[in-house]
Amino acid sequence: MVAVSSVSNILIELGAVLLLLGVCGRLAARVGLPSIPLYLVAGLMLGEGSPVALEASSEFIRIGADLGVVLLLLLLGLEYTPEELSHGIRTNWLAGLIDFGASFTPGFLGGLLLGWGTVASILLGGITYITSSGIVAKLLADLERLGNRETSTVLSLLVMEDIVMAVFLPVAAVLIVGASVVEAGLSVLLALTVVAVALFVSLRHGVRVSRLLDSTSPELLLLTVLGTTFLAAGLADKAKVSAAVGAFLIGVMLSGQIAERGRELLSPIRDVFGGLFFIFFGLQIDPGDLPPVVVPGLVLAAVSAVSKVSTGWWAARHAGIGPRGRRRAAAAMIPRGEFSIVIAGIGTAAGLESELGPVAACYVLILAIGGSFAMRFVA
Amino acid sequence: MELFETPLPGVGVRYEFTSAAGDRLGVIVRRDARREVLVYDDRDPDACRATIPLNGEEAATLVELLGGTKVTERVSDLRHEVEGLAIEWVTLEPGRGLTGRTIGDGRIRTETGSSVVAIIRGERSIPGPGPEFELAAGDVALVVGSIDGVQRAHRLLTS
Predict the structure, then answer these.
(1) Which fold does the domain A4-377 belong to in CATH?
(2) Contacts of A139 in chain B (CB under 8 A)
(3) Is the pTM of this model over 0.90?
């Protein structure tokens, strides 16, 4: 039985947190920045050593953050149709490989140089690899660059990154629980098989699966899709392939009309819980831990910005884009955001390396803001 | 005239062409009814000088103004020739009516006495679709029957 006073405390704290997110989001929109860095800062301010400590609502925020990750990945899966994903793999695998090699390496080596273990370094590689498709897609639309010819190059690189994430996350999850090389190899195979099966099912039977879950009532649609997703995410987590991947694959398997309407209905829910996730990530970090990691964060940001710029520039040139378009494509690859934090969150939750959280926060703050400015002012 | 088609993952498809006068034009066909009309820049061939976002209704109006609806012209001719027979073009909207379901699901012939005799999907036409044919948003169904029957079929298809 929950005491009345604790309910009121939870509501008060939660209200304050959501309001703070709202104010940050408005501020970000006013100055033309993505909201993620401001959410992070808000989380840092409320975290350890801050005068206003969250107590009553911390458990709710923790669960909300977990749901946020699941929803972020579900919407990522819904974002692209199965045809776009399979087309992406067939036509962009080389660019995807170069992208991965160029931008995973700085993080991985950086982690080793900081004296971290192999697993934490691999996670840092993932953090420096994954461009924020959320920030980039929003900015491309805001800057009216969706029609530009280099934009299709940028978007197809982002599709490849998302496919790589589907494999990277379960592998990282297995490595974290301390598996041997053989087990890790098996899990890579398992992950690849599951992704391939999901793609196959959605290409062949997507219409049938989607019709089974579809409904003209928004309420029933939401309940069925959310239920299926949480169930799949939970089962995936039990099987140690990370809840995020289960959610992503459900997103991939839904296609057509249900995907269309699911995106519409679920995006606002994702934004609320995603906001809680960024706050929660910030909460776990003591702001006092940030100053020592500013220099590594800056160096990582600089090196991996250069590697992304080169990848974007090369891919655009390869697609026959002119010099100005190449510069725009290069800048559009810089912003990092939600998925870098998702990867860092997985590592932090497993208690891997105490510096991982602060470094990732610092890194994302620099490149979410810096990358947005680069995109805006490159032309 | 050569029309280039480029997929934009997560957004839709972009079409572009160069007009005889030398202007490069494009259209982004979003997954929903929204469209963007693009006018490319002469100095920077990869960038757009203007991007004009249109909602579904505006796009449909623009098409009509540009005289693209040869289909409607033909239909109005037909209507003069055949008295007492109603013919209607019904556009399926996302998430409503029979969109995402089959013609058979709607039991149009049983309920209204009128028939869906053809479907226009994008640039393709599908004459004589069977009851198992699945309707998608943006499809245009050609319904033939009595005036009353066609009206009822229209309601079945769209609401």
Answers:
(1) Na+/H+ antiporter like fold (1.20.1530)
(2) none
(3) no
